[in-house]
Task: structure prediction
Amino acid sequence: SQTIHQWPATLVQPVGSPLSLECTVEGTSNPNLYWYRQAAGRGLQLLFYSVGIGQISSEVPQNLSASRPQDRQFILSSKKLLLSDSGFYLCACSPGQPEAFFGQGTRLTVV
Amino acid sequence: ILNVEQSPQSLHVQEGDSTNFTCSFPSSNFYALHWYRWETAKSPEALFVMTLNGDEKKKGRISATLNTKEGYSYLYIKGSQPEDSATYLCAHGSHTGNQFYFGTGTSLTVIP
Result:
């Protein structure tokens, strides 16, 4: 079965600082990978998805970027954080079947 | 981006009451419909995956139905318990299977 490791669990960063959230997957090969965000009072929003190494699709224009340097590694980054980047970030993995598995999430607070 | 809508946004019920929520999605290019149970600061927990029109799934006191022709799914909880309190998310998978689009969720609070 798939295991998704996501870290850190919580993060407090000043406005203008960089961001790097990492997600790694075990137990499957060539999965689809996703980054989601839940902003305060809102539902889950799809930010990026990837169907393979180096292949990134963005769903919404934003201050963030994503990279997939290895098959089971997905990284969410920002060069300069904004207050509006605060939220709960979830990494998800789909092993090619119609289902998705999630990491534990990262609570990001930009101050 | 696929538009997935859930209603109601929040719900308070008494322990023992039965309840249901709605998930609406575009009926064209349907791939799969997912229901998740999500507690704050935890990973969403998969409840059901449904792919066929008319599908009905059941897990204990929770069940779900799917109508792909009209683009909706219902989630039912029979005899709600305080431990059922959570946000219930539905997600629609694109026809390529690569993207999952979530509704904003229904927040359920079961009052003892």
Notes: The mean pLDDT of chain A is 89. Chain A is about 0% helix and 60% strand.
